[in-house]
Amino acid sequence: MNSSFFIARRYLFSKKTQNVINIISGVSVFGIMVSTAAMVIILSGFNGIEGLVLQMFSSFESDIEITAAESKTFDRNFIPKEVYTSQGLINYTEAIEEIAIVKNQENFIIATIKGVEEPFLEMCEMDAHLLDGRNRINDEYGPLALIGAGAIENLDGYIYQIEGQYEYFTIYSPNKEKKISSNRLKNIDAFTTSQIPITGVFSFNNDVDQNFLVVPLDYAADIFNYKNEITQLELDFSDDIDLDSKKAELQTVLGPSFVVKTNFEQNKLIFETSQSEKWITTLLLGFIFFLATFNMVASITMLVIEKRDNLNTLSALGAKKSQLRKIFFYEGLLINGLGLILGLALGYGICYLQQTFGLLRMQNSTVEFFPIIFKWTDLILILGITLSFGTLAAYMPSRFLIQRIIKED
């Protein structure tokens, strides 16, 4: 065994003559342990919240969305057949999104009418997000609508629990052939008026819940006077497909007349905000760990002073300064390593208990317990921070103190 490492280990675990050094060494290990555990818990918890938020904002959107580059709509016949035979494609739907006025009795809202085909209900996992009513947009009598929880509340609407009975909402859709001189309903000729029964209420996120009404594609085309036009094509791919690569492939097939966006790009602001928050959190946690290493610097400094006579003896016996420096450098690494191991065990242990038993609950949320998600990248990041700062904190006192204490020959 390396003699410097052996002596360093003895110094760490043996009782010092000055009890205050024992206390400071213990505080150093404890500080590193708590800081490391905090990084594990906070980053894992942040991953859980991030995953929950992104799921809320991304589940309503498709994996890939195709829109026209220069106009709001495009002819559905312009989409090449290669798009529909793309590898990994599970589902797709043509869609029409337009703004309209939705009215129920004396209440009305400005809403986004989203006309879709039946596969959309499976693509967005509507069953899992349905709060009330039935998950369908067609029956034997004609088109039906699904509405966001916030929108139906603002309209003071109601979902009948009896099969076949519905409340009807009135939709005022802009008439392309007429000019709208006012955003009130006085100019009634400027709108096409239609009614549709409401069959279910869904909840994805606040924006969707407050603004969206999902209807059949044919119904949307009829009330907005569309023929072959659609506003977008939405595609859903299997989980093993790299969406960035698929985007590039589809963009090549479609050419510059179309814009292809991944799920990430459809919610770009949400994703980028989430990533920025995580990096800021990581920097703050790294700074806290950096402060925790000052205890280790103090511990090594006091140990060097206490062992001054021993160091002079070892020097007289032929030990080189580099060997003596290594003793306290290894001492610092052992303190850092012990705190790191204990911190990882504590942090991941608490996270595992949260995942398994749900120690911390979330009130008025879509999930019952606070979500926890582990990522290998977080472990690598934590190891990088702790080992970098720990090594620096171990090196500095061992490098400069030995130089001053050991007398020159």
Task: Produce a short descriptive summary.
By secondary structure, this protein is α+β, with helices and mostly antiparallel strands.
Radius of gyration: 32 Å
Helix content: 40-55%
Q: What sequence of helices (H) and strands (E) makes up the elements?
A: HHEEHEEHHEEEEHEEHEHEEHEHHHHH
Low confidence ranges: none
Kindly name the structural category. Answer: alpha+beta
Question: Averaging pLDDT over every residue, what do you get?
Answer: 86
Please report the distance between the alpha carbons of the first and last residues.
28 Å
- Can you count the helices? 14
Write structural notes for this entry.
The protein has 409 residues and is α+β, with helices and mostly antiparallel strands. It is 52% helix and 20% strand. The strands form 3 sheets. Strands 3-4-11-8-10-9 form a 6-stranded mixed β-barrel. Strand 6 and strand 7 (142-143) form a beta hairpin. The longest helix is centred in the first third of the chain and has 40 residues, at 19-58. The chain is elongated, with a radius of gyration of 32 Å. It starts with a helix and ends with a helix.
